[in-house]
Amino acid sequence: IGHPEIFPLLLTAKTQKNFNCRADEDVTEENCFKCIKKEDIIQDLKTRANTSDFHPLKKVILEYPGEELLVVFDPKFQYGQNFYIVASEEAKENLLKLSATAEETEENGEETLEVHKAWVSLGSEKEVEEESLKERDTKIKYKISRVRRKFGAPITFTDKNASDDKDSYAECTCYEDNTFSIKMLERDVGVQTIPRVRETSTQTKWTYPKNASTQYCTRQLSNEAKAETLSSETLKEFLTAVQIRMEIALQQNEIMDVFFDDWKALAEDEGGGKPDVYLKAYQSFTDVQYLKNRTISCIRWHPTIYGIIALSATDQPSYEEQVNLSNKSLLHQSVILLLSFFDPICLQLVLKAPEDIYCFQFSPSNPNIIAGGCVDGQVVLWDISKHEEKLQSAKPVADEITDSEGELTAVVIEVIQGPPPMQVQQSSTEPPLVRYCAASSIPYSNKKPATDIQWLPYNSEDDQKGGTSENRDENYLQLVTCSPDCSILFWDIPSIEHRQKFLSEKIKEEKRSYIPSDTDEDLDLSWKPLIKINLRERDTSTEYGPSRISLRELQYRYKTSGKAKSLSALRSPIKESPYTEIGASSSKNLEVLENISTNFFVGNEDGEVVYSVWKVKTDTNSKKPHSQKYTLHTETINTLQNSPFFKDIFLSIGGQKFAIWKEGVTNGPILQSSCSAGRYTAGQWSLTRPGVFFIGRDNGNIDIWDLVKKTHEPSHFQNISKSIITFISPSSASAEQHFLAVSDDLGVLHILEICQTLCHPSSNE
């Protein structure tokens, strides 16, 4: 501002070397001027084109009248860059003259004389004289004497009450001074204003209504009249006059859409003003019994029931506890908690687990089935179908809640609107405790924590009549888990019908033998994976420890040999689980479905993204995929997620970077971020806008990236917590209400409401 002839310019090290204007070598803060020929700059623009550092000022350089341009080194970034160009001859000469004058002054050693005005007294010396300290003419002297016999004796000091001796102190009591007492005169006055009222009247003249009707018919012309009109000169003149205008109107209708709303499109592109982007606090939740001193590891929204959200937590072990696993604390129970918006104080369900749950997922085909991965590598299943009515009946009114013993208790719950304080209150009714219905065999499970778990959908088979039928006697491959032990496991699960019947028979048997249904002693641990993939290099011993997996829609069908086993065979003996059949299965009976993609991506602990293409071979149980790795992140990848709008686009987050990848592009990501100041700890795509995603940071902030507006920095950020963000999960409750669940390292779950700007995409997004 104030210098229109100055244009800031960023010169890289290569350009500085080419034009002999290297910072702190050829040009310094004292000698900051460098004249460069205009022809050399034009030649650099022709050679390097858009990559030239002078390209942003190409028009200014070409219009410059002189032969040499003055380039000035700006070490303090006064104009925003490390150099700036002077685009006028007059300003160039002035700057060079000032520089020459300053150099001559330094060489001659001349000193500038400062001219001071004469001091004019305004009376301040009198005030200084009054405030100055002056000695008295006669000084007061005090003489203190002591009896000679007390010379050299020790001195003892004592305390006494001042009220005992009247002469030892003087009391200054307060009194009322009539000089400063002013009588206040008050007057009570009432004032009322009323509008001015005027009465008027109006009368309209009323006429008598009459019934009237009009009838018309088309005008019929005879053939002679039609021929005369068509051959008349008046019609020919009219057609000649309007022909050009009609042709232009028809062409315009073909060229552009006359019904297109330009004003609405302008509002979408420009926006008029800066829109409000924010995340509004909706609710906060924590629990002293289950979440104290624990980290929330995973959050999932219930797929079909509004307001139900599930979360799992893991311990925060110290370094000694990580080294010596035998010292594991037994104060916390390993559970998955289900809670409701309408009752944030009381838990709805508590799912018991053998170990802490690192990740879990609701089944997309049956939301009552939940699969989880433990920190010891086990895979666990829960069936909450018996408690589905309880979850659906959670409302902000007095409800009847059924506890684990079958008793009905009425509980009145008051829902706190807005962001309530994080308080935990004890309810008179304990939440139902649901035991897991199946757990995998520990020797055949992952050797390290199951860091990611994915559900695969059922496959339907066409019958001869053209319809679609599903074979209930087949086992379906439904689960995929990955672990840092360099393995990816595929698990098949029997039909839900077999498992429910098995559990019902099991409960009946327990009631007959008076065995409590909450014990885990009779749980069968013979569930084994169907397929195991080892992520290792073929020629070297390099291993990839996957922490996240992203795959296309995989579908496999496992057929049992011979006739399907009966339910009695599945239930005998009663202590065995229906998953015993899976433990003895082999991948030799596995059939690969046609037109199924076998490509998948994994992110490992070293920050590498591995793209693997594998095909099932029936002669071996262990599959060795052909892998292709990309090294971009510096730390463990914590997020690897497909875009909900594009099947071949996915997001990877780890360390201080994030990247967006496209399947089929083998030379790297299509978009990657620069290194941030802190670490990215979690992330998630938006469910309603293709160009928006959310990233959690280690300082408790949430970065909102809108690729339509900016790709080099987040469009908005907001602080959510004082601790590390551990997980993010969005949900679309309705077309007008969208939520974002965010958890932190302190065991607190934050429910945020997403603003409308981040929910409604533009027309061409």
UniProtKB/TrEMBL annotation:
InterPro entries: Dynein_IC, WD40/YVTN_repeat-like_dom_sf, WD40_repeat_dom_sf, WD40_rpt
Compartments it resides in: Cytoplasm
SMART domains associated with the record: WD40
Domain of life, per lineage: Eukaryota
Pfam family, one: WD40
Listed GO CC annotations: inner dynein arm
Record key words, sorted: Cytoplasm, Repeat, WD repeat
GO molecular function: dynein heavy chain binding; dynein light chain binding
Single biological process term from Gene Ontology: inner dynein arm assembly
UniProt protein name: WDR63 protein
